[in-house]
């Protein structure tokens, strides 16, 4: 059984039907020759692949930060706070989908970068390991993902 799609077809600008070779894996694979999020990116460059892994890791950490941050101050205008919470939720959902789409490249390194990004993000922003002791514990502006 073949685990990748080998050819795709498209119409070029002159109206001719053309076939191009593409390596879109349909099962987990390892290696730096992969497409992540955008067509042709990161390509076959090891440096660009490392940059893609860092990007996925950081995106996953930002998703965790947005899940546990508390920016709205007590006593703020409820309508403005509601719109701000909605905007933050929208950004978090969009970034979560970006991480999910990156993982759907079926690249093992991208999968591990996403998992470790979420883990480190939770450790830093969501767990009690790095919270300041004393004082009242603030609840996050956004409820954690379910």
UniProtKB/TrEMBL annotation:
It comes from the Eukaryota. GO terms for cellular component: plasma membrane. This is Copper transport protein. It is found in: Membrane. The chain crosses the membrane at residues 47-67. The gene is LOC111311105. One of its GO terms (molecular function) is copper ion transmembrane transporter activity. It is a multi-pass membrane protein. Keywords: Copper, Copper transport, Ion transport, Membrane, Transmembrane, Transmembrane helix, Transport. Belongs to the copper transporter (Ctr) (TC 1.A.56) family. SLC31A subfamily.
């Amino acid at each position: 059984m073949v685990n990748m799609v080998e050819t795709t077809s498209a119409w070029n600008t002159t109206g001719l039907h053309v076939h191009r070779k593409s390596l879109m894996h349909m099962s987990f694979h390892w290696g730096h020759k992969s497409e992540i999020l955008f067509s042709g990116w990161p390509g076959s460059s090891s440096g660009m692949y490392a940059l893609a892994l860092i990007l996925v890791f950081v995106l996953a950490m930002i998703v965790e930060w947005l899940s546990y941050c508390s920016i709205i101050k007590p006593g703020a205008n409820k309508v403005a706070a509601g719109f701000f919470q909605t905007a933050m939720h929208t950004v978090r959902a969009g970034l979560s989908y970006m991480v999910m789409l990156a993982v759907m490249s079926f690249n093992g390194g991208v999968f591990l970068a996403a998992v470790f990004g979420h883990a480190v993000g939770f450790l830093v922003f969501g767990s009690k390991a790095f919270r300041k002791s004393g004082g009242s514990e603030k609840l996050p502006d956004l409820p954690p993902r379910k």
